[in-house]
Design goal:
This protein is α/β, with parallel strands linked by helices and 286 residues long. The protein has a single domain (19-277), classed as Alpha-Beta Barrel (TIM Barrel), CATH 3.20.20.70. It contains eleven helices and seven strands. The protein has a seven-stranded parallel beta sheet with strand order 1-2-3-4-5-6-7, covered by helices on one side. α8 (197-210) links the parallel β5 and β6. α2 runs parallel beside α3 (81-90) and α7 packs parallel to α8 (197-210). The two termini are 35 Å apart.
């Protein structure tokens, strides 16, 4: 219900990157100094596992040709064990899956029963399937606002501890998305449970206390100065971000409000300077 890209939202335009655009975006991101690239996929029947594996292989091949160590991550629908195995063989380095909420009742409320995402158990168990396939770097997260934040944060920590105990691996990344209204999505305000700044920062502190080596995924849904208040050593601080296909190649897409949800556009030089002023060293080629 909360996603601007849902099928029922006919107002927002649809875009699928061509192979040429994909290659151009990779070159552009590498030219900015980045060496880790996250692939974000929608539920698109024309972009299947073979396509994803091919694109992972392309990035890895570019790295070899240019003598760069490039990492590739995946943010997509939960997959079967065999699919994760295919992507691992193609060179996938990490994956992220956001549970959205750990409340089964709220999860069922927010997701259409006719949508593949409705299957809570398949999503929950995807972490084990991926780790069993050899993808030991995993990202977790909830969307603050869909449920009581205390309940969801506690559930995420418990989930992470279960995986930690079973596999001996802590979460690689914990996402921190706070609900931002999506383009053209209406009639859901009464169901959102807002999380204020103090509560949000308390949740982040809880994550750090339980998983001190895990990177918090600090994102552009929040203002730059707010993010600077609680970022810590080894956190993943997003500066350049576009939440619509082609946003890097066509910045006007973001300016025209075709994003999946509202984000802030940071000036890279200013953001880098402020991070340094706080005593940290930004590393783009991590």
């Amino acid at each position: 219900m909360y996603c601007g890209f849902k099928k029922s939202n006919q107002i927002i335009p649809r875009k699928r990157l061509t192979e040429e655009e994909f290659i151009a975006e990779i070159d552009l991101i590498l030219s900015w100094g980045y060496r880790t690239i996250e692939f974000v996929y929608a539920s698109d029947p024309l972009l299947d596992i073979s396509n994803i594996a091919k694109r992972i292989g392309y990035v890895k091949e570019i790295g070899q040709k240019r003598n760069m160590y490039l990492r590739v991550g995946l943010n997509a629908d939960p997959l079967k064990y065999e699919d994760y195995l295919t992507l691992k063989k193609a060179g996938l380095d990490f994956f992220v899956i956001w549970m959205e909420t750990y409340s089964r009742e709220k999860y069922a409320f927010w997701h259409d029963p006719n949508c593949p995402k409705y299957d809570f158990d398949f999503r929950y168990n995807s972490y084990s399937r991926a780790i069993d396939a050899g993808l030991t770097n995993y990202g977790m997260g909830i969307l603050f606002g869909l449920n009581n934040w205390h309940e969801d944060v506690t559930a995420l920590v418990e989930h992470g501890k279960i995986l930690e105990q079973k596999y001996g691996i802590s979460p690689y990344i914990i996402g921190l998305p706070r609900f931002k209204k999506a383009n053209s999505v209406i009639d859901i305000d009464d169901y959102i449970l807002p999380v204020n700044d103090e509560e949000y920062m308390q949740a982040c502190k809880t994550y750090k206390e339980n998983f001190p080596k895990t990177m918090l995924f600090i994102n552009t849904r929040e203002k730059l100065d707010f993010n600077l208040k609680f970022c810590g050593d080894n956190d993943l601080f997003t500066i350049d971000c576009g939440t619509s296909p082609g946003a890097y190649l066509y910045p006007s897409v973001v300016k025209n409000g075709v994003e999946q949800f509202h984000t802030y556009q940071y000036n890279r030089d200013i953001a880098t300077r402020k991070i340094k002023e706080k005593g940290f060293t930004p590393i783009f080629d991590w």
